[in-house]
Design brief:
Length: 285
């Protein structure tokens, strides 16, 4: 198996399961914003392992710091937006939109890195753009207020952030070590933890039983390990291939598991959007 493919498969599987389980701690009383703080802490062991593998050699020049921080801000900022989107909207609608982020990655890689894309991939991009408004559809009588629509805007923000992040990761991997990139991603995630704490409404009832934070840590560890293997996947593989595989197929796993776990099915128009999204990420991957 190619190096990039092995790392990409690990990320895809881990993120797919993580996405389906991420709502469970919140449903048991742990705010999503505190879930972000826990996630940022689970990044630390992965960063230490990465640095250990390269003899604790961290690149500290301005370019490396800038690229690593940019990747971290896009990833961690997307995480904050994702947690809020999942608080306001169901995972089976949020993740199909996020799964279309390879449309951004592929376009940037083709235009700025000179990576080639086949007609099939471009067809997937077009279908992805068609699927987005269908996925945001709400039937008459549904929630039409700001709270009811904000999940869609937040999902689009994650879609853009993670699409651009994939390009930055591939670009950064051409001139610096993956381990340094991940270190700065971890540092950025931790730096944004106070923002997550500020966003937390501590006036609401919370359950502080140790098993809930422990459960959240286990679930978020899947995300952190997947983030590390994602960086390695972009070291060895083209963004135009790696990004569709990871950012499209992982949400597909999430959607399938979410529908099974929560036993729900969306409106038929939204279902059409989900079907188009499925075809789109199949073509892009």
């Amino acid at each position: 198996m190619e190096h990039w493919l092995g790392y990409a498969v690990v990320t895809t599987l881990f993120w797919g399961v993580w996405g389906a389980l991420i709502e469970i701690p919140e449903k048991r009383g742990l705010p999503a914003t505190l879930g972000y703080v826990i996630w940022s802490l689970t990044m630390i062991p992965c960063a230490l392992v990465a640095l250990y593998l390269v003899g604790w050699k961290l690149e500290g020049d301005a370019r490396a710091i800038a690229l690593g921080t940019a990747a971290g801000l896009l990833g961690a900022g997307g995480q904050l937006a994702l947690f809020e989107a999942l608080r306001r909207g169901p995972a089976y609608l949020v993740f199909p939109i996020i799964s279309l982020s390879p449309a951004v990655s592929v376009a940037l890689a083709a235009l700025l890195l000179g990576e080639s894309a086949s007609p099939r991939v471009w067809t997937g991009i077009v279908l992805a753009l068609i699927a987005v408004p269908l996925l945001s559809y709400q039937p008459p009588g549904g929630s039409t207020g700001t709270r009811g629509r904000l999940w869609f805007a937040l999902s689009i923000a994650v879609f853009l952030a993670w699409g651009i992040q994939a390009y930055v990761l591939r670009f950064a991997n051409q001139t610096m070590r993956s381990e340094s990139i991940f270190f700065y991603m971890t540092a950025t995630a931790l730096a944004l933890a106070p923002v997550a704490l500020w966003m937390t409404d501590f006036k609401k009832p919370m359950h502080w039983a140790p098993r809930v934070p422990a459960m959240a840590a286990a679930i978020q560890s899947l995300n952190s390990i997947g983030a590390l293997t994602m960086v390695y996947a972009f070291r060895y593989g083209k963004a135009i291939i790696v990004s569709p595989l990871i950012n499209a197929v992982a949400p597909a796993i999430t959607v399938a598991l979410s529908l099974l776990i929560y036993r729900t099915f969306p409106h038929r128009i939204v279902a059409i959007g989900m079907a188009l999204a499925a075809v789109a990420f199949f073509l892009m991957a």
